[in-house]
Amino acid sequence: MPVTNYSTNQEFFVDMQRCIGCKACEMACAECETNGHESMIHVNYVDRAVTIQTTVQVCMHCDDPACANVCPADAISKDEFGVVHTANTSRCIGCSNCVMACPFGVPKKNEAYDLMMKCNMCYDRTSAGKKPMCATVCPTQALFYGTRAEMAMMRPNSTPVNNFIFGNENVSTKVNIMMPKGSTVLRVD
Amino acid sequence: MFSLNKQAFINATVVSIITIALVFYGSRELQNFDPALIAYLFGTVFAFFGVVYRYSVWLQRPPTRMYYKRTWELIWNRQFFSHLWFFIKEFVQNIGFQKFIYPRGRSRWIGHFLMAAGCTLAFAITFPLTFGWIHFTLNPESGLDPGTVKLYEAHFFGFKMMEFEVGSFMAFMIFHALNWSSWMVIIGVLIFMRRRLTQPGLISTQSFEGDLLPLVLLLAISVTGLGLTYSYQFMKGFAYDFMAVTHAITVIMFLIWIPFGKFFHIIQRPAQLGAHIYKREGMRRGMAVCLHTGKEFATQMHIDDLKDVTKELGFDFTLEDGTSHLDLSPEGKRSRLAMAHLKARQENGGKLFG
Amino acid sequence: MARLPVSAEKLIEEFGPHLNYPPKEGYAGRDEPDKEVKTHCCFCGMQCGMKLLVKDNKVVGFEPWMEFPYNQGRLCPKGVERYLQNNHPDRLIHPLQREEGKGFKNVSWNSAMEKTVSEIKRIQQQYGNDAFAMLSGVSLSNEKSYLVGKFARVALKTANLDYNGRLCMVSAGAGNKKAFGLDRISNSFEDLERAEVIIVTGANVSETFPTLTHWIWRARDYGAKLIVVDPRMIPLARTADLHLPVRPGTDSALYGAMLKYLADHDMLDHDFIDNHTSGFQEALDAVQGYTLEWAEQVTGIEKAKIELAAQWWGKASTSFLLHARGIEHHTKGVDNVLGCINLVLATGRIGKPYCGYGTITGQGNGQGGREHGHKCDQLPGNRDITNPEHRKIVSDIWGINEKDLPGKGLTAYELIEAIHRGEVKGLISICFNPIVSLPNNNFVREAFEKLEFYACIDFFMNETSRHADIIFPGSLQEEEEGTVTSAEGRVIRVRKVVDCPGEARPDTSIILELADRLGAGDKFKFETSEDIFNELRVASRGSTADYYGITYKKIEDNMGIFWPCPTLDHPGTKRLWEDKKFCTPDQKAHFNPVKYREPGEVTDEEYPVVMTTGRVVSQYLSGTQTRRIGKLVDNFPEPKVEIHPQLAKKYNIRQDEIIRVVTRRGSAEFPANIVETIRTDTIFLPYHWPGRKSANQFTTGNLDPISKIPEFKVCACRVEGTGVFAGPSTDSKAYAST
């Protein structure tokens, strides 16, 4: 990788309860130089018929990414900072294994490109010492990028959690989700 | 740590031996073999060895093996001919013309197509030449008679395949084919280099050895290859030796690097067609319906296979009720996570903030 | 005269709306721009700071402006996509003249000006000065708003000037003037941060002012209780501590009952009431009998919820009450506002840290634009056009005889009615799209068809300007220097980032040339926007909206100055009323009695369902700008009727079925979106779309008697299923509906 100013003391924090579904992140994501006006972030209604609840999902950058493991083409790699990069365009064969295996539902298959694309934590910005576009613009700070200390000061009653349980699987990630103070894990189902 | 993969080693060795044997017999026991190309031959055989070794290792990985297994199943499938026809069609579109790159950007497609076409053409010529499988001779009859038009004969595996007039358009095209391929590669490389040096998104994520070096190497091969021709044609052999040596070195580097670097994607790419057929067959068999959204989202075969593959890789997404987290579509997974998060927040005295 | 010269479809083909998308790899030069200009979003009243990236005189992208104190880089989707209105293929770049049967032809500036001036003169000579009217808008800067006000009175010499703020927050303005003698939110939004209780009523904050959500969430991080009053479960209400799903048109009953509850349980600030207010007893008398039970019956909100809201509000030591169009767009808009103010005054929580009240102004310059005189009854500095003293001050500054200054004119909707009656014959408009944004818009369109002459200044051709005889290609926000005043009362600088394309010209230069050609050139000697601002400063000096101490440099140095700012060394006023001296004649805050009244149109057997209207997050107002930006349109491609499953079941309507909405003013068809997040007696329809997709075909022209705001939020309708199901929204092409 080229010379980088990636700041290792800044982290990504997500709190879906703050999300208002405005999709500013989605629009901003498309402005990121690494994904050519395609948005990599997901905002969706959880169940519109009964609630206005929306959720926002960036790549969680797993410590042991299922997407990279199931990739038959070795197209997904994790770098020294723990950023799980989007599919290598020359290798990806568009099989969608990663799309269906990611427990967070993050990778997206672009059918026209026959290519998987996913969030790489705005690598063009974070590697230049800037904050990701989505977390910068998020009007509710459901997405926040900064230091743990800043987060602790702003939201003293919440704890960043980066362990998730999906059935028998325990997944730990680089990205944090804000949970009630004292939580250590989020059991999904 | 590198540890030798026995199966892969055997496969690679067998292929290498077969190649050498074919070289021996294809060149009529080396009488058509050009000893000047011996270094190229070693490079090529090593590349074959490496490619097969890596391909074999690759096929042993659980996700790849699953696809490999399914591919063989299709051979015995009633849909075989339908899939075969689909494969041929797709091969022309996606491997021949790289249709899927076009939507990613027009100049990107032009650049890639030129490089791919140039390289394919060059491979098609140089491999048989190096192996001594093809060679050209002057038709002896036409050569003896000064009054007639002289004819060239092309031989493959020692058999005469065709003949054409010296100085004809055909001759011009055939003997300059490598020059044409060089020009295509050069233009393609320049288009790609421009992208890689000017687009901030690429600059931030590319690596020198992974993305720029391959372009540099292709450029060096093409320029020196062209240089060889133009040196003796127009420059009275100026720097011919230098170019010959550089060309040989870069080509051999290129060959032995195929299995390890960026160029392995050339070997991998046809697997894309496999993925398409897999999806096609899967759709025929039936779609999986997301437990959350109630909508179809993938083929049931794919989801079932992934459950096995993930387990083999050490991920167990099986839930208490026996279903799997993988039975959810990506949207469903995101929604379930959000619901779980909301529940966890609510259980904590309903505190959604702070 | 002003029927469309050719079919709307043909005009759309040539002038749009077309959707603009950025190129795949972004505009060239985004990564190495010539300059990054710190300016503001062109859309809502939040006026978020942002940096526009410029390459070769084109806006090629944006970067967040992290230092700007209100939004610190945060933006909503409209803000992110805002840069795409530049470089738009629909942009008007030549003066246009209507050509019967053909559409519009390019003409020279000189010919467009000559034609307009001669028509103005003809109409005014034939029918009188007031027969030529002007309509303006508050997406315009303070400078342009001031200039329009002066232009209409001094050059056009007409009384009939009004603006689209008439359908924005005039109810709030009128209410605030009655209660406080001044029309501005009392605090900056930073004061939300430590408010214990926040009431947000009739304000879909998360969709219409998304960046304001941050400040509310901050308060909640510190433990604030949030009460949201809205007929729908809006995104802000989902997590709210209390959601009061009020029946549209009954808001004042809720506040009345709450006031009575506060008084009955002695949750009052007696000291404040006694010393700094007047009219408390009358206000209390007006709500006698407004018991919780009565309120439950009227508003449809469970009485326990009303009681809880009143208790929380009553016991809080700090609080903030915010409202917006949801309570203002009513025939009792002013009543609703006064009802809210009564709750604030009764608890004395104003003029103190973290104690605030105010309206959230909707349009970009809704605040500044309503202060500087392009309102029919107003002169710069929020002065009164009927007040002889005010008239004298302004006439002197303008260098005219006070007798020549026209009097009070008609309000926007009344003006349309006057056009329809044939009393007003000519019109010039800028920055207003009434055929989409005014109620009962089939009637509005008929009015436009009756005009003898209509000239329009705009950068895109919208649904209204299609009716014009002359269209002057004006400027986008980023093509002229100026100031705007955000919803907080913060005066900020918007910058000229690029030049106008083609033959398009800055709005200011167009108005100045028209003034000159109308013979008033000597009164309009402005070289720069700053010259206009400096005259505005003087004109507002000593008024309630005093800008005298604000200069361009001071704004730039401080990233905005809050008015009132009476002197050059004054730092500006972030929080009003800290001295408890209100701007009323007796310097006291006034309670006002608010008796509950029915809305202008009520449901009956024939029209049993209430329809209410509002906005979606990815569109802005009448959509002249946002219905042209591809990704914003894709996010919400067409209006759908939100309807509760119970109501849907009653009419046998299924999800995505096309349903017919029928009102006294017409009917139209929309897909149904069946959701539990709306009251069972109410349907909701967003209003950004034109023609058959317009919500304002249904809304009534009933006006508030004081503010003259139309009642957009309540009308009676019935719904009918059609049995046909809607195709994909993206195929609907609602953005260019006719």
Automatic annotation (TrEMBL), chain A:
Domain 4Fe-4S ferredoxin-type residue range list: 10-29, 48-81, 82-112
Gene3D superfamilies assigned to the protein according to its UniProt record, in alphabetical order: 3.30.70.20
Record carries keyword DNA damage: no
InterPro entries: 4Fe4S_Fe-S-bd, 4Fe4S_Fe_S_CS, ET_IronSulfur_Cluster-Binding
Keywords carried by this UniProt record: 4Fe-4S, Electron transport, Iron, Iron-sulfur, Metal-binding, Repeat, Transport
GO molecular function: 4 iron, 4 sulfur cluster binding; metal ion binding
Entry protein name: Fe-S-cluster-containing dehydrogenase component
TrEMBL record, chain B:
InterPro entries noted in UniProt: NarG-like_sf
Keywords: Membrane, Transmembrane, Transmembrane helix
Keyword Transport listed: no
Positions of transmembrane segments: 6-25, 37-55, 113-136, 169-192, 212-232, 238-260
Name under which the protein is recorded: Uncharacterized protein
Lineage: Bacteria, Pseudomonadati, Bacteroidota, Sphingobacteriia, Sphingobacteriales
Automatic annotation (TrEMBL), chain C:
CC terms in the record's Gene Ontology section: membrane
A biological process term (GO) from this entry: respiratory electron transport chain
Originating species: Arcticibacter pallidicorallinus
Name of the protein this chain belongs to: Assimilatory nitrate reductase catalytic subunit
GO molecular function, one term: metal ion binding
PANTHER family registered for this protein in UniProt: NADH-QUINONE OXIDOREDUCTASE SUBUNIT G, RESPIRATORY NITRATE REDUCTASE
Domain 4Fe-4S Mo/W bis-MGD-type: 34-90
InterPro entries for this protein: Asp_de-COase-like_dom_sf, MoPterin_dinucl-bd_dom, Mopterin_OxRdtase, Mopterin_OxRdtase_4Fe-4S_dom, MopterinOxRdtase_cofactor_BS, Prok_molybdopt-oxidoreductase
PROSITE patterns on file: 4FE4S_MOW_BIS_MGD (PS51669), MOLYBDOPTERIN_PROK_1 (PS00551)
